[in-house]
């Protein structure tokens, strides 16, 4: 997903964004959740409806990142 590699992921962009949100909500491995949130922050743009709907399922250590993602368009 890194734009540096100049791959056209336009067809896969939304499915990947959805998958990363689901991983962030459902996975219990902190490293995987951290990487999913990093990719969402670095390579996608909101909205993030899955994160918004399931914010209570996010580990407390990742809530600041999720809140940032949910509110980044409000600045």
What structural class do helix, strand and pairing data support?
A: mainly alpha
Quaternary status of these chains? single chain
> Distance between the terminal alpha carbons, to the nearest Å?
25 Å
Beta strand %? under 5%
Q: What can you see in these coordinates?
A:
With 75 residues, the chain is an all-alpha fold. The protein has helices spanning 13-26, 30-43, 49-53, 63-71. The termini are far apart. The model has no long low-confidence stretch (mean pLDDT 90).
Q: Which characteristics define this entry?
A:
single chain; 75 residues; mainly alpha; 4 helices
Strand and helix layout:
Elements: H1 13-26, H2 30-43, H3 49-53, H4 63-71
Provide a short characterization of the protein structure.
The chain contains four helices and no strands. By secondary structure, the protein is mostly helical.
